[in-house]
Amino acid sequence: MAKSQWSFETATNLSAALAAKKVSAVELAKDAIARIERHDAKINAICVRDFERGLQAAREADATLARGEKKPLLGIPLTVKESFNIAGLPTTWGIPQQKNFVAGEDALSITRVKDAGGVILAKTNVPLGLGDWQSYNEIYGITNNPFDLGRTPGGSSGGSSAALAAGYGPLSLGSDIGGSLRVPAFHCGVYAHKPTYALAPSRGHTPPPLPPLPLDRDLAVIGPMARGAADLSLLLDVMAGPDPLDAGKAYRLELPAPRHTALKDFRVVIIDSDPVMPTDAVIRGTIEELAGKLGKAGVKIERHSSLLPDFADSTRLYMRMLMSFLAASFPPDVYAGAQAAAQMLPPGDTSLGSERLRGIALSHRDWVLADGARARLRAQWRELFKQYDAVICPIMPTPAYKHDHSPEQESRRIHVDGKPHVYPDQLSWPGIATLPGLPSTAIPTGFSPDGLPVGVQIVGPWLEDRTTIKLGELIEREFGGFKPPPMFDD
Asked: How many domains is the chain partitioned into structurally?
């Protein structure tokens, strides 16, 4: 079965085609399934198939359409990151000891997707414990980038980004604490949105075998991935809203309309690199090209602002707070070893690796002080966004790199313009939005000279998710967006 006219369409366009009876939900589901069966032996984006239930959901969607009913995702085929609970399917987070764990109920976000008419076909691959920008584990194997099978598709939502790029449905659900939505979108040339913190409740996006209870997971969010910017809003609106079981947060964070609807009205700060985590010539070049296009379109652009928070200070703070949260799940012996190593650090050592080590050993008192520093950081961002509408900056310092599965991430190196840099230091760029909990939309901007996708993130004000997504839409409309990987454009 060759590529159909629908294989790389957006969900928005597919919804219109379904409403106009140009295609059926069953046809769309079969098209996506056929692409998985034809291509996924090479990519390995899909780790759990649920085709029979997906086809049944598609048949039910067609019946609903025939009755004239409308739902936001009615009949749209999609995939879901493995880390979301779906009743009757495994949820392992790539952890070998949990390979037989089967979820008993759907995550809240999955329930909402199903209630909106979405047709879930499969789950997508992840790294061990969702803790890498490469998506591989002992249970499901290695996911490859559809643009170059020898390179990472990103992580931890790497299976989802690869699935989108390969035409396995127009939408996917992912999550993000260290760029896990934005990084894979960047590496596979698709779109993703890290929502404002706590906008979309994460109940059921839970490491096994923990029960799916409402839980504050500091810094972490769940969010939408797509092949077009407008589709991000479509899925976000389905996922967002209070968790009825969370009595302490039984409210809805209302999202205001986008600040502007025309490019010429936007005021943007553009950053292309920083000494904390330099970007290579390809990334700087694509940002420079985008800046030129935006300037010609009338966008008011600044390259520097005294209102921008200090990137070095905020990055060090992010490293500490991130690792303090993640270390809660470390085995006792690993945690004890990190505590001992942190005590040996010289006070003047402010390298990012040392800050991560300090974060693992952070006392509650020190965490409270760090949280106060985060509150001051949020206040700085509020002041910035009184004068500007968005900050456009890198997501990662280089295009997708070759698979490197050496066990110690702190010992891995990436090369930026030929110079080695510590692999986990790449957290710096995703952290710019994660630490203060701001919305950030990842968009593709083109390709490197060797055909690898590149892109940027659009960071916006607290709760103004519609502003960053709208700017992404306008850039896509004016300058283009997703392009299928040549190897799988059939």
From this structure: 1
